[in-house]
Amino acid sequence: MTSTTQVIDKKDATPGWGSRLLAVLRELYRSPASAAGTTVVLLFLFLAIFGPLIAPYDFNEQIYADVRQPPSTTHWFGTDHLGRDVFSRIVLGASSILSIAGGGTLVAVFLGTVIGLISGYRGGWIDEIIMRFFDSLLALPALLLALLLLGTLRSAFGENVSAIGRGLGVLIILIVVYTPIVARVVRSVVLSVKTKGFIEAAQTQGESQARILFREILPSVLPALAVEAALRFSYAIFLTASLGFLGIGVQPPNPDWGLMVFEGREKYSQVPWAMFFPAITISLLVVAVNLMADGVKRVFQSGDLDV
């Protein structure tokens, strides 16, 4: 009876992932800056999911009677030079940029975590080869590396690829660009943890390498990983928008925010709001994610959260 009670108490003492997420959200809302950033990010996630129900027009619907209309009660952000509602295009473009940036960040964080754990724990020639390869990738600026990778993908698959193919290409670029950064962060934490007593005890007990990595070391990596993931997400949003602005990401008539800024710049003298509102949207989301990342860092560094 006593052993059963101890098992139940131990399970009750270990919070689930849902409880941990709610605890993080509560801590984020204790600071006005992180609360504002988190609220804006959640708002954009809401738009990405329910955008088709919120947008009053289709993203490519051309209202010829309202071409180049300034912001009004009918068109909150005005219309562009083709008569398309700018507000609707921004709302419907949220799912594209968040799915690409978010998907690329998630895969990069997953791969970077696995590679960083293995490389830092094993050490030796495996660690040396992986880190030198990643150093060669990190030697190039992210945007330049993205341009080189896109050029390689275009030469391999040609210019006439679908919008899905171009979105997938940007996704692959984000994974390649950010996986090395995440892996180095995880590796640095592993190097400082693997020499501690509880790891040596696990090795002495004959635990498998996978169990040591994911049950013993990974919890110590999670605080730094959470902060790094949030930062990578903000950079991924900016890089995705930059590729769209350069015309080498998602192509027209898709409502990509970076592409909208590029199209609005060409007609700035006629419809300045067509460039202004997408640019403000990108800036707002990037700043919001950075504020949320600062809040996540504060939460984990405070030690108030049990991870």
Describe the structure.
- By secondary structure, the protein is mostly helical.
- The protein has eleven helices and no strands.
- It starts with a helix and ends in a 5-residue tail after the last helix.
Properties at a glance:
mainly alpha; 11 helices
In short:
This protein is mainly α and 307 residues long. The chain is built from eleven helices and no strands.
Low-confidence stretches: 1-14
SSE-based structural type: mainly alpha
State mean pLDDT (0 to 100 scale). Answer: 84
Radius of gyration from the alpha-carbon trace, in angstroms: 23 Å
Number of strands: 0
Q: How many individual helices?
A: 11
Task: Tell me about the largest β-sheet.
Answer: none
Shape summary? elongated
User: How is the quaternary structure best described?
Assistant: single chain
Question: Level of helix content?
Answer: over 70%
Write the layout of secondary structure elements.
Blueprint: H1 2-13, H2 17-28, H3 32-54, H4 86-122, H5 124-138, H6 142-157, H7 163-193, H8 197-204, H9 209-245, H10 257-266, H11 273-302
Helix pairs in contact: 3-4, 3-11, 4-5, 4-7, 4-9, 5-7, 6-7, 7-9, 8-9, 9-10, 9-11, 10-11
